[in-house]
Design goal:
Blueprint (H helix, E strand, L loop, with lengths): L2 H7 L44 H11 L1 E2 L6 E2 L5 H6 L61 H52 L2 H26 L1
Antiparallel strand pairs: 1-2
């Protein structure tokens, strides 16, 4: 969309002018400036994302509580975040029937076939297991020779396809003949009607119309009686 052309068509005076029709002091004379976020923390974020890494903070807190002044490692921190997570009566957020750690399921183990004795058994050269009989590739063309059953099935499928096409063409031909017959009958009736009109007198025409009117009225009465 050409925004410049659209605004100009609505009465804007062009670049460097505000949207006011006469006064540039009313409104902005430049486009709306967008603040660029280059800290990589995402739109709308104003806090350090490291604070959300509770597991990292828990381990960091536990490491800071280790005392090595006496020559041995001793944990001086009591009731830290890591202890709360691993404690027996920890919060249900991490343990328990609906805790976080119950969502992790140990997967199964796939056994390899390196030590399987059956994988080292060679195939006898005369067993025919590599290539079924009757399906050896032709040395000249490089294509596999089809069997009698495959050739018979291919020919049967070809015959069925040909018969279906013939049946479809026959149905189309019958439909076209039916349409032509309807057109011919309609033209014949129209010609007979025109011939009858040309040779009849006024009295005959009036009598024919009266007869047709009475026939229509009788049909209407019959339908009314049958509907009751």
């Amino acid at each position: 969309m050409n925004a410049h052309a659209l605004l100009t068509a609505q009465g804007w005076r062009g670049t460097g002018h505000s949207l006011h029709p006469t006064d540039d002091k009313t409104g902005l004379t430049h486009h709306i400036l967008i603040k660029r976020n280059q800290d990589g923390s995402g739109l709308g974020s104003k806090k350090d994302h490291k604070q959300e890494a509770w597991w990292l903070n828990a381990f960091d807190q536990a490491l800071k509580g280790i005392d090595m002044k006496s020559g041995t490692m001793k944990q001086t921190l009591k009731g830290g975040a890591l202890e709360k997570i691993t404690a027996r009566n920890a919060a249900t957020k991490y343990t328990g029937a609906r805790g976080l750690y119950t969502s992790f399921v140990r997967g199964g183990v796939m056994e390899g076939s390196v030590n399987d004795p059956a994988s080292f058994l060679p195939t006898p050269p005369d067993s025919g297991a590599g290539t079924p009989l009757g399906q050896e590739p032709d040395t000249k063309t490089g294509k596999r020779e089809e069997t009698k059953e495959e050739r018979r099935a291919r020919r049967e499928a070809k015959k069925l396809k040909k018969a279906a096409k013939e049946e479809q063409r026959e149905a189309q031909r019958r439909a076209a003949q039916k349409v032509e017959k309807k057109k011919a009958k309609k033209a014949e009736r129209q010609a007979a009607k025109e011939k009858l009109k040309a040779g009849e007198t006024k009295e005959e025409r009036r009598a024919r119309r009266d007869t047709r009117r009475r026939r229509k009225e009788e049909k209407r009465l019959m339908r009314a009686v049958s509907s009751q």
